[in-house]
Amino acid sequence: MSLIVNRRDLDFYLDELFQLPKLLEAERYADYDRNTITAVLDAAQALAEEKFQPVAAAADATEPAFVDGEVEVLPEALEALDAFREAGFMAAGFDSEVGGMQLPWLVTQAISGIFMCANTGVANYAFLTAANANLLQTCGSAELKEKFLGPLLEGRWFGTMCLSETQAGSSLGDIRTTAVSAGDGTYRLTGSKMWISGGDHNLSENIVHMVLARTPDAPPGVRGISLFLVPKIRVNDDGSLGDFNNVAVAGLNHKMGQRGTSNCLLNFGESGDCVGYLVGRENEGLANMFHMMNEARIGVGLGSVAAALGGYLYALDYARERAQGRRLGSKDPTTPQVKLIEHADVRRLLMTQKAFVEGGQALIFYCASLLDRQKLTSDRQEHQALAALLELLTPVAKSWPSEYCLEANKLAIQVLGGYGYTRDYPVERLYRDNRLNAIHEGAHAIHGLDILGRKVRMGDGAALRVLRGEIQPDLDRAAADERLSGLARRLEAVLEQVDQTVQVVTACPNPELAMANATLFLDGFGHVVVAWLWLKQALAAQAALDMATSDDGSRHDHDFYQGKLAGCQFFFRYELPKADLALQTVASLDDINVRVTPEQFTGQ
Amino acid sequence: MSLIVNRRDLDFYLDELFQLPKLLEAERYADYDRNTITAVLDAAQALAEEKFQPVAAAADATEPAFVDGEVEVLPEALEALDAFREAGFMAAGFDSEVGGMQLPWLVTQAISGIFMCANTGVANYAFLTAANANLLQTCGSAELKEKFLGPLLEGRWFGTMCLSETQAGSSLGDIRTTAVSAGDGTYRLTGSKMWISGGDHNLSENIVHMVLARTPDAPPGVRGISLFLVPKIRVNDDGSLGDFNNVAVAGLNHKMGQRGTSNCLLNFGESGDCVGYLVGRENEGLANMFHMMNEARIGVGLGSVAAALGGYLYALDYARERAQGRRLGSKDPTTPQVKLIEHADVRRLLMTQKAFVEGGQALIFYCASLLDRQKLTSDRQEHQALAALLELLTPVAKSWPSEYCLEANKLAIQVLGGYGYTRDYPVERLYRDNRLNAIHEGAHAIHGLDILGRKVRMGDGAALRVLRGEIQPDLDRAAADERLSGLARRLEAVLEQVDQTVQVVTACPNPELAMANATLFLDGFGHVVVAWLWLKQALAAQAALDMATSDDGSRHDHDFYQGKLAGCQFFFRYELPKADLALQTVASLDDINVRVTPEQFTGQ
C-alpha cells in the first residue's frame, strides 16, 4: 500500500465526485483522455516515491545551513528537484504555449498533493516557483515574461513571494520596504523581508523574488503597495546571468517543521543597488497579489490535507500490522496479541483521521473543480457565480484543514504510541509540518474576519446562495433515499443555522462584538461544507453499491464504498454537532473576549 | 512577569481553594508555617529561573548523545541538577527521617510544576528519581532501602522505571524480561526494556533501575510480573561502587520533544551477569508499581499543565508587547499599530489557554490536596472515600491536561504567529514536549477504558458519589448567589448527564460496544470536573470581591478576581457544551467504530 496516496480514493474524487472525464471533453484538454491522466499520475507517484519520500526524514533532520555566504540545502533535495524539473512537473498547470502541460487544476492539485505528502519540505521550492511564475504570467509585462517566465517554468530558476516584514505580518499595510524609480523603467529596492520560504538556496541558478514595496509617494496602508520582480542575480538582455543584485540573506529561521524548506530574512539593497521591475501598476501590488491568493491558499489547504493523509495512511498501515493487547472480554494472556486495529478506540482514531483527510480532500478537489469550471465557462453569470463561490470557500479551503487535518496528524501519532513520538517514524514530522498551515498565507483569525465580515455578506449573501444552489441537488437526492434522508435533514437544519447566524451577526451594530467569534464561525462553517461533501461521497458510494449486482462488484470496491458510507455517518455523528456549538456561540454575540482586559488574565 | 509561574495564582490555589494554611496546622507539618512555604517556593522559583529556564532551549537542541559507551548530556543540565540536589529538592516530598523536606504534596506539586515549566527535559531526571525512591521506600526491604534510598534522595544516584518492552507497551502482561533466582536472594536479569527515560546519562554516579520482569515459573500475563531493583553499577556492602552490572544502552530514541531527557533501549545481562533484587514479593510487581501510579500519573498531568502554563504566560506577555494591526473599525493606516491583545480573537486564544491552564492547575492541586487529606486522616471511612475519589480522578488528572493543555500550547504558537513556529521562542518546544503526555504512563485510550470500565462502576458508583459529595457544597453556595446560580444549574444538569451515561453504558451487555467511546467519556467527564473547579474558583473570587470594600482591595487583586470570574464564564460558555456532546455520543452506544472493518478504511 502506498503511504503517500490512495489512488482508488483519488480516482473517486476525480471521476465519481468531480467529473474529470467530462472536464476532459473540453477543447482545452484535447491532448488528454482519462488514460493519459492516469499515466501522468502514475509518473508523479513513482517519482515522489522514488526521489521525495525516501529523503523526507533527512531533509527534516538536516536543515538548510548558511555556508560561505549561501544557503546550502541537502544534496538529495537537489536530486529530487532535478528529477521533478526533468519530468516537466514545474509547469504542470501552465498552458502548452508557454511550455506547460496544460492540465486541469483538478489534476495539478492531485499531483501536488502526492509530492507534498511525500516530502513537503523539498516540494515547496517547486510549488513556490509555480506560484511566482503564475503571478508573473498574469500580471507581468511581455518584456518581463520574455526574460523570466521560461527559466522559471523550466525550473532552472526558482521563485519566492516576499510579503511580510518583521513589523508587518498579518498587517501588510505596514510594510516599509521601498522602491525608488531609477528613471529608466527600473526601480531600486531597499528594506528587509521576513519569513521568505526558499529565500535562498543552492538549488537553482537564480532566484526570482516577487516583492511587495512602497514607492516614495505612495499613499499609506494597503493602497500604497506595489509589486516588484527582483532577481537574486541580475539577468542580461540575452538571458545570461550578470552581477549579484544585492539580495542578501540576513538570517535563517529555524522552524518547528517544514524544515527542508529554507526560510530567510532577506535584505534588499543593503550594500549596493538592488534592481527591481514593476509588475502590474504602481499601488496595485496587493490587489495583484490577491488575484493569485485564492490558488495559493487552496494550495495551503492541500498541503495540510496531504500532511494528514501521510499520517493517516502510515497509522492505518501500522495499526493493521502491529500486534498489541487483546480484545475486550478476551483477556487470556496466553493467546496471541491482536492487531491494533482490532481495538475500537484505535478504529475511532483512524475514522476521525479518515473523516478529516477524505473530507479535506473532497473540499480541496471541489475548489479545484470550481477553478476549472470558471476557466472553461463562457457564461458571464456563471463565471461571476463561481468567482463568488470561490471567494467564499477559499478561507475554508485554506483554514479548515489547518485545524482539523492537524488534529488528524495528532491522532496518527497516538496510533503509533511511543514510536509515533520518535523521529524514526514520519507521523511526528508530518504533525510538525502541518502546524505551519494555520499561520502562513493569512493567519487563521484573518480568514475568520474575512469570511464572516466580508465573504458571507457580499452581494447580500450572494455567495452563500450560490453554495446553496450547489448543495441543493445533493440534498434532494439524499432526501429521496431513506438510507440517507436523515443526514439530509440534519444538513438542511445546520445550513439554516448558518443563515440565521449570519443574519444575527450582520445586524449587530458593534463590529468588535459581531466579529469576536469569527474564527469559530470559520471552523463551524467549514464543518458544514465538509458535511455536505461527505454526503456527496455517501451518495456516490450508495449509487455505486446499488448499481453493482451481487456478482460484478469487486470485494475491494464494496469495502471502499462501505467505508465511504461509514465515513459520512461518522462525520455527521461525531463532528457535525461541533458546528452547531460553534454557530450557537457566534450567534450568541458573547462578549467575554471583548470585555476581558489585558490585566485580568493574570492579575498583573 | 515570570514566564514560568504566576505566584498570585499559585497562592490562590494553595490558600483560597485548597486550604494550605489549615493543612499546615497538622503535627506532621509543624516545621512549617505559611511564610516558610513562601520561602521554599521563592527558592524553587529562583533556582528554576536561574539554572533551568535559561538552558531549556539548549537542552532541546542538543540531545543526549551516545559517546564512548555512555550517554552524554548537555553540561548545563548537570549544573542545573547539581544546584537542585544541593538545595535539597530531590527529597522535597519525603519524610524528614529519611532526609526529606516533609512538605505537603500540595506544595511539592507546586515546586515540581515550577521546574517542569522551566525545563521539563532536565527536571525529568530528578522527578523520575523521586518516583523511583518513592517506590523503593514503600515496597523495598529494609536492607535495600539502607543501601539505595539515601543516595537516591541525595541525588547522588538517579533512578528510572523500566516497564515497557518493544512488543509490550500498553499490554504490559506481555513483557518477556526474565529474572532467575541465583539462590542467594539475588536474581539474574536478561531481556530488553524500551522507552526508558533517564535510562543512561552522565549526570549521577550510578543509576538505579526499577524493572518489571518475570521469574521462570511465573503465571502468564499481569499476574506473573515481579519488580526488581537493578543498579547500573553494582554497590558493595559498604555502599561504595563495584563492577558494571551489565545494563547496556542498545539505542537512544530520538523524540519529537522532551529532548533534554535521554530515552533508551536497555539490554539487561547481555554480556554478563546482571544482578537484581526483588522489591516486594514475586508476582506482585505490577500491583506494587500501580501503588505508585496515582502519584506518577498526577505528575504527568502536572507536567502537561506546566507546559501549557509556559506557553500561556509567554503568549500573554508577547500579546501585551507586540504591536500588530489596528482595531476593527479603525483602519486608518497612519495611526500606530495596536498591541496584539487588543484583538478579540487574540483574547479568545488567550482565554482558551487560561481556561485550560488554570482549570488544569485547579485539577492537579485538588488531587494533590486529596493525597494530603488521605495521608492525614485517621478516619478509616474517610480514607476509603478519598482513595476511591483518587482512583476516579487519577485518569482525569493524567489525561485531561494531555488533551486540553496540549491544545493550549497549540494556541500559544498561534498568538506568536510565524515567530511562534520558530525555535527562537519557547512555545513550539513546549507544544512538542506536551505531545508526549497522552502517550506515556498509560495511553489516553487506556485511561478511558479504566474510568468507564472500572472506576465509575466500583462499589456501585461509590467514587462518583464521593465526588458529588465534594461538589455539592459548591453547588449549594453557587445556587444561593444569583450571579452564579445559572452556572450551578448548568453544572447540575451535566452531572445528571454523567450519571445517566454511566447507567446506559453499564447496562449494555456488549463490552466492546459499551466501551467503544470510552475515550470520549474520559474527555467529557474531565470537562465536567474542570467546570466544577472553575465554579469553585468563581466562588472564591466572588467572595473575595464581595469582602473588599471600595478602598481596601488592591487594583491587582480586583483584576485577578475579575479574571477568575471571566475564566469561569468562558469555560462554561465555550467548553462545557463539548462535554454534553461527548457524553451524548457515549450514551448513544454508536457502533460505527465497532463495525467498520480494517479493509473499509481505504478499500484495500
Describe the structure.
2 copies of one chain form a homodimer. In chain A, α8 packs antiparallel against α11 and α13 (458-479) runs parallel beside α16 (518-547). The mean pLDDT of chain A is 96. In chain A, β8 and β9 (241-244) form a beta hairpin. Chain A has helices at residues 7-17, 20-23, 34-52, 56-61, 75-86, 105-139, 142-154, 285-321, 344-376, 380-416, 426-434, 444-455, 458-479, 485-507, 511-515, 518-547, 555-587, 592-595, and strands spanning 65-67, 70-72, 157-162, 178-181, 186-197, 206-213, 226-231, 233-235, 241-244, 247-252, 263-268, 275-279. The first copy, chain A, is built from 18 helices and 12 strands. The longest helix of chain A has 37 residues, at 285-321. The termini of chain A are far apart. Chain A has 604 residues and is of the alpha+beta class. In chain A, the strands form 3 sheets. In chain A, strands 3, 4, 5, 6, 7, 10, 11 and 12 form an 8-stranded mixed sheet that branches. At the A-B interface, α8, α9, α10, α11 and α12 of A face α8, α9, α10, α11 and α12 of B.
